[in-house]
Amino acid sequence: MSAFNLLHLVTKSQPVALRACGLPSGSCRDKKDCKVVFSQEELRKRLTPLQYHVTQEKGTESAFEGEYTHHKAQGIYKCVVCGTPLFKSETKFDSNSGWPSFYDVISPDVVSFNDDFSYGMHRIEISCSQ
Q1: 92-93 and 101-102: which strand pairing?
Q2: What range(s) does the MsrB domain occupy (predicted)?
């Protein structure tokens, strides 16, 4: 996964509605170190096979094929698993990588950066920290 391979982390640009993701109101979302946990069974039911593969099995979708590669609507991109807001549409740019690219995150606390040395190169995997 490359630094630009972010499509699998986000859902379409729209206002964040955590209840739609299965989080109860009053969840631990307000507590900094509280991780949201979903069972694998629940995730398999709720996510598409591609979303599950990419978010849970470190898969990658094909470049230039995702529905958000050329998405231009204004809004917030959020984690497809837990609903955490990750990126604002104003920070999206065309990197010619085939995946949505953003030059900033909503908050550094909401993402994790991990080195990826696969395929003979150094890339940075960006994922939701929840």
Answers
A1: antiparallel
A2: 40-130
> And the tokens for 31?
């507590």
Q: Where are the beta strands (DSSP E) in the chain?
A: 76-78, 85-88, 92-93, 101-102, 111-116, 123-128
70 by Cβ neighbours in 10 Å (0-12 / 13-18 / 19+) ranks as exposed
Question: Residue 92: what pLDDT?
Answer: 94
Distances (CA, A) of 29 to 3, 25, 82, 125: 25, 9, 10, 23
User: What pLDDT does residue 53 have?
Assistant: 95
CA distance 123 to 9: 16
- Pick from 108, 110, 57, 125: which is nearest to 79 by CA? 110
pLDDT digits (tens, 9 = 90+) for 60-89: 888 898 888 888 899 999 999 999 999 999
Residue type, 63: A
**Averaged pLDDT for residues 40-51:** 95
Residue 82 DSSP one-character state: T
